[in-house]
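Question: what's this shape?

___
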Amino acid sequence: MEHYPSLTETVLALRNGQVTSEDTVKSSLDRIEELNDTLGAFIHVDRQVALKRAREADEQLAEAASDPSAEAELPALLGVPTALKDGHEVAGMPTTFGTLINQDENGEFPIAADSDPLAQTLEAAGAVMVGKTQVPEFLLNCYSENRIFPPARNPHSPEHSPGGSSGGQAAAVASGMLAGAIGSDGGGSVRIPAAACGLIGLKPNRGRVPSSDALNNVGQLSVNGPITRTALDAALLMDVLCSTPGHTAIDRPVKAVPERSFTSVVSRALAGDAPWGDRPLRIGVSTASPFEGSYDISVSPEAELALSEGVRQLQALGHEVEEAQINYLPGYAKNFFKLWTTAVGQIPLADGQELQLTGLARHFREAALNRSAVELADAVSAIRVFEADTIAQYAQYDMILTPALAMPPRPIDWYFEGYDMADPRSAERDYERQCQYTPYTSFINVVGLPAITVPTVWTQPESGDYPGKVPMGVQLVGAASSEAWLLSLAAQLNPPTDPRAA
């Protein structure tokens, strides 16, 4: 099994002069060229511009090497290749948002004149943008398939999905195309693909970092977060995200970034100095989901195994782990659906463009257009009551532990089996299957708390056509502003051994 350097290792190697940015970026580009026809992670690659940026980074690194006092001023990701999902704008690159309605009469997609805030943050940190990665239409689904490009595929089992909506990002990191990436998470879009691909995925607290994912941000659901192979790498990307100039919290005040950087806090935790001190954490385990009662929610044997291993490791670390009796308020599924679909109804469409939408996007749009402002306001009010009640129930614990996903990675096209564009029940079944696969993520966006998904096992699924073992993991939900604790605990858990390394 080939070793992929971690993000932290890559940064250190660049700083120490062991590698050049040009060679590092070229290696990333070569791996994309080698694997992308199979994995469909990237929808656009700009090799020429990326190599030019890499050579510019090498000049900065060389100047710092000749003046040791300048090294501390180097941008955190100087010379490191990365990418953004195709819901963000990067100057000079096309933006599709996963939808054909953005295509012009010549079949071309608009080229961004300017980078959006997240791209600007990464560029200011010195990262080299190599391209854009695959997403579902409007970034609204937990798979990464659309009508424009081939689907993104799971590097561990290419006939299965890497999840979504940041599935292209996760596939790129899991396959070694990138050392780390940032995605947006409005209902699980960082945590779901991270879990499906055996990676770390962190959704920060609402307001902790900027969000530019406007379509998913009705109800302040969406937040940007890291997808990485290690918790230390995720901490590094959190430090970058929190460096955005002029950012302020958008909801309840969040605690300041730790007096030490996230990277420093996690490094100390790895050395045995955890931010919670010597006391054990009180962790409540729950498989309850607020989607129960609206959909048939069940936990697969593979998800149960991952949860059991998470419990075992936490107990081995000395923490108090017990079953939590969480009783979610009724009505969540219908109220969340109203928030989730609202933005699609606000998109202006020309005559005939609705036919270019996927069946699910049409279903979302019709639901939104037939909803009154009063209905939406009532849903928002109910969601805020749900938020307060859930936070109050969680408050008796330091963290809540849930499965990351309810099933192993889903087959490509699983959501579209027997799909009939003329039958709205097909779209309803698509959405229902998404809720059944990911019943533990969206409500964490609703309550605004930070959460992290961590792989705990590799397992051979009991049913389905899987060529080998796939990763499964758990989700840890923390108290408000507890990202440093979540990252530190994730860093202390033992990553499962990839069977391909044997």
Observations:
- The first helix runs from residue 7 to 15.
- The chain has one domain: 7-501.
- The CA atoms of residues 43 and 149 lie 7 Å apart.
